[in-house]
Amino acid sequence: MSTPSQPPVAADLLDLLASWERELRIAKLSPATLRTYGRSVREFAAHLAALDDPPATVEDITREHVQDWIGGMVAAGRKGWTVNTRFANLRTFFYWLVDEGEMPANPMERMRQPKVEQEPVDVLTEDEVRAMLAACGGDFTGRRDEALIRAYADGGMRWSECANLKMSDVDMDQQVFWVLGKGGKTRAVPFGERTARALDRYLRARRRHPKAAGTDRLWVGRLGGLSAHGVRWALEERARKAGVENFHPHRLRHTAAHQLRKAGMNDQDMKRIFGWRSGKMLERYGESVADERAREAHRRLSFGDRL
């Protein structure tokens, strides 16, 4: 319902968002994707609510309202990836409104994706990953966290995918994780020999852990199976001990993609392993690798170093 400080169009959008989210849950989208869609629509509704002359109804929303919102994000210095995500999410929402008869036409029809500068992919250096591994030690939590770091950095899974792995999802013979990804789709994520060795050492220690028998979750802690937030805390603690600043688990996924792209993995293999549907992420990591190679070339050929 609308309030004295909130125009009806904003309240209507939020009501329609709740209906859309029910549809998205049926499609088995991940909680993270649902949050991103919801955040985009809520931010646009807040933008309309702040206007001196907001549209009277949802049907009155125009392209100019969207352009003003996008322009405001760019002017505020929002990250390029965020601006493009907000744009795409809102356009998808409007198409759903048209399909449901809530809008006569999509005001974003034929609108082009905003041209914003993309930030470099936030990857860890090899030395930073090695430092995190060196910070693990040889006790139970050390074995677990080494296997965890290697699983992330080698397989490049999403944080929630790796955190929610079950024992039955690990195939040591084929050296793959069977991952439940976005949209409820299962994919095989391979891992290498050193990750297999770290997993083997952890699994042997896990069998002796007093809380292991009570859970089918792969990652076990003092109280039993680790939650996704428990896994994140464990990784952040290893990063802190290793002196890695501004760490978050997704940086390990970025790093895996960057390194595989740098090593020459082809587009189709990258999409299958990382669970990408479009080529946008491939372009982003291609630019990341090109930037790194340019820096390496400059270090080899630096004119300043010859002076």
TrEMBL record:
Annotated Gene3D superfamilies: 1.10.150.130, Intergrase catalytic core (1.10.443.10)
Family of the protein in this entry: Belongs to the 'phage' integrase family.
InterPro entries linked: CB, DNA_brk_join_enz, Integrase-like_cat_sf, Integrase_catalytic, Integrase_recombinase_N, Integrase_SAM-like_N, Tyrosine_recombinase_XerCD
Pfam families: Phage_int_SAM_1 (PF02899), Phage_integrase (PF00589)
Residue stretches making up the Tyr recombinase domain: 119-299
Ranges where the Core-binding (CB) domain occurs: 11-98
UniProt cross-references to PROSITE patterns, sorted A to Z: CB, TYR_RECOMBINASE
Molecular function (Gene Ontology), one example: DNA binding
Protein name per UniProt: Site-specific recombinase XerD
SUPFAM superfamilies tied to this protein: DNA breaking-rejoining enzymes (SSF56349)
GO biological process, one term: DNA integration
Protein keywords: DNA integration, DNA recombination, DNA-binding
